[in-house]
């Protein structure tokens, strides 16, 4: 490794050589490899974090390239899973760190597996889904792992740090109940500067924690709207912690880690697409899927991670673990019918 690689970062007094050494021994789990995830992953890889685990269920699409900085046109042409494309690019940026790509749906079972398999020092939320955020919230407080919440839509963004060992109120305490809906870039659009602002806030908090500068971390909920030049900081008081909270209260039950084993469907916000996750996730023989699909459809393409099937106005993208995106419909029942047509 070039001795000059981190010299500018080490020259920053709060980090120094001791902070850089701490950074090299840390493991960060990034949930989501879209705009926020790819931005955070690149900054942390360049900064010298020892290990990054990147989790994402989706593949690179042309609409991602406007703001998701790790990806290029070739990734979209190949329809590479985002976690795989991100890992490939990050290894080109910094070959001296460990990067693990996990192409999977972020379920409670998978989250528990990931945090128990290898010590995780920090979790970064880079999702656009509150059900997953509540799972991250539960796993973080159960295993006492700090986590960074971030979200953006349009020109708006929010960011907040949660430190379970400090007995801080959790996300559930702050938001009180699961929101019925949330701002989403599929509906409201997104400008890249809003993404980069949230990434900057999250990655700065990450560097503080990972280099032993906990005292410098923010204890506020930060909100901004770049288009209207609005910046607001809301201080988080320990009094907001609810003693009856099922996540951070006196007798936690971590309800969002208690999954029911059944097929899950989700109509993606603002898109005629249904996401399907089977009750049991197990590896598919993609060659068999291709052979079966070619009997029904003349338009079948694939790569080592997924098979794409065109049927009339519908497009099915089937992943190696049995998950699927059904494009062209927002009807879960029709999506299931198409899914079972090819996977029984």
UniProtKB/TrEMBL annotation:
| PANTHER family (UniProt xref) | ADENYLYLTRANSFERASE AND SULFURTRANSFERASE MOCS3 (PTHR10953:SF102), UBIQUITIN-ACTIVATING ENZYME E1 (PTHR10953)
Q: Which GO terms describe its cellular component?
A: cytosol
Family to which this protein belongs: Belongs to the HesA/MoeB/ThiF family.
State the Gene Ontology terms under molecular function.
nucleotidyltransferase activity; sulfotransferase activity; thiosulfate-cyanide sulfurtransferase activity; ubiquitin-like modifier activating enzyme activity
Q: Which InterPro entries does its entry note?
A: ThiF/MoeB/HesA, ThiF_NAD_FAD-bd, Ubiquitin-activating_enz
Name of the protein this chain belongs to = Thiamine biosynthesis protein ThiF
Q: Name one Pfam family in it.
A: ThiF
Looking at the record, the residues that make up the THIF-type NAD/FAD binding fold domain are: 6-246
